[in-house]
Amino acid sequence: MFELYLILLFLANLNTSFFMKKIILSLAVLLIAGNVFSQTRPTSKVKKALFEKYENAKIVRWESETERNRVTIWKAFYTLDDVLRVACFDPKGNWIQTKTEIEKDALPEAVLKSIDENYYQYKIVITARFENPETEGYEVFLDNGQDGFNVQFSKEGDVLNRTIRSKGYKPIDNEGKEIED
User: Fold this and answer.
1) Does some domain include residue 160?
2) pTM metric for this prediction
3) Which residue pairs, CB below 8 angstroms and at least 24 apart, start in 141-145?
4) Pairwise CA distance, residues 78 & 173, whole Å
5) Within a domain: residue 143?
6) Torsion of the alpha carbons at 105, 145, 119 and 127, rounded to the nearest 10
7) Please, what's the largest Cα pairwise distance for the chain?
8) 111, 163: one domain
9) Number of structural domains, the chain?
10) I need a surface site. Which of 29, 89, 101, 125 has the fewest CB within 10 A?
11) CATH of the domain at 149
12) Domain range holding 63?
């Protein structure tokens, strides 16, 4: 949007015909729209990277995270062996992380103990196993009805990362979409 503002400012100060201004504005809008719409689907590099890593993956849907109108992360929601997973890639197709949904009782005792000691006022909503190039562990989505935490644990129960989500978490379906209570 900032680019469009700059173009409009440029056109207002341009000393050319009205027709020429319309042509320049139309081209600018097309370029900006093309840039926005080109980010609605992952590139072939990202798709190739997914299927090289998980050749039997069945895609449920793609999502992207953006920063300043640029895709920074592509998320592939897919099933493999009838289990929902999410693989994250950068726009160049480099693998960042994969999360695999698991049952709560599959969490190690050390992780459950850490949750009981540090997050006793929260309930477990979603549980997953994660892996990335540096480490692997467990991720738990916790909610107390108002706030939510996304906490990554080591196998030993140590907190590796914690993210607050102000609107909390809800259970998800087989497509990774939140289920209303």
Assistant:
1) yes
2) 0.69
3) 141/169, 142/115, 142/169, 143/168, 143/169, 143/170, 144/168
4) 12
5) yes
6) 30
7) 74
8) yes
9) 3
10) 29
11) 3.10.450.360
12) 43-91
Structure confidence by residue, pLDDT tens digits, 148-170? 889 999 999 999 999 887 665 55
Cα torsion through 59, 80, 141, 135, rounded to 10: -110
Q: Is 132 inside any structural domain?
A: yes
Centre a 10 Å sphere on the Cβ of residue 181 and count the other Cβ atoms it contains.
5
Q: How far is CA 26 from CA 14, 15, 160, in A?
A: 15, 17, 49
Q: Which residues are 140's β-sheet partners?
A: 127, 151
Could you read off the pLDDT of 33-82 as tens digits, one per residue?
444 444 578 999 999 999 999 999 999 999 999 998 899 999 999 999 99
Does the pLDDT at position 24 exceed 90? no
> Which residues sit opposite 37 in a β-bridge?
none
Do 78 and 117 share a domain, yes or no? no
CB 141 within 8 A of CB 168: no
Give the domain-ending residue among 60, 91, 122. Answer: 91
148: tokens are: 């939510």
